[in-house]
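Handout, page 2. Input:
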Amino acid sequence: MGTHPPNRKGTPLASETSTVTALDAQILREWMDRHEDLIVIDVRSAAEFEAQHIRGSYNVPLPLLSEHTDELAARLGKRVVLVCQSGVRAEQARQRLGTAGIDTALVLTGGVPGFASAGGEVVRGAQRWDLERQVRMAAGTLVVGGLLAGKFVSPKLRLLAGAIGTGLTFSAATNTCAMGNMLSKMPWNKTAAEPTAESAIRQLPAA
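Output:
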């Protein structure tokens, strides 16, 4: 994939590199204001989407997108912007879509919070901790708990802290997060509007 063509003012729609994958929040704002033919896909959980999302975006959680990549790709055009909380899950989604023939998808830099900070229009609902914050809390609690249990109960329990550290290192190296996937299935991260493959595909405009 090469660079995107410049907009009407001559400003590139994304950073000019040999392979464009990142889109600045301000550029996305300008792009949406001009009603460009793009689809913004939010790959966070339904609960995170409900708490805050970019107006006009579509919620397709990453696990669902990963399981039904080909079906979803068939409904997407060439101008696809993927968003999450920080960009990690959106990048995973971009790589998945690449295997289905969509190699022009962009990842929003800074995620939904970055878009809101740039003055972009967002919809806010019931506030919850985002999934990445939950992962940090869970991992930190388990590490501290393992160290304390190792000191006061049994030294063997310190292995828990080491296992969590190893897991976090693996997550960073592979750009995946097993703990995040597990937490996304917890009851407090579920909403009445949890999308299914059928509803996620049906909501998307035809390519």
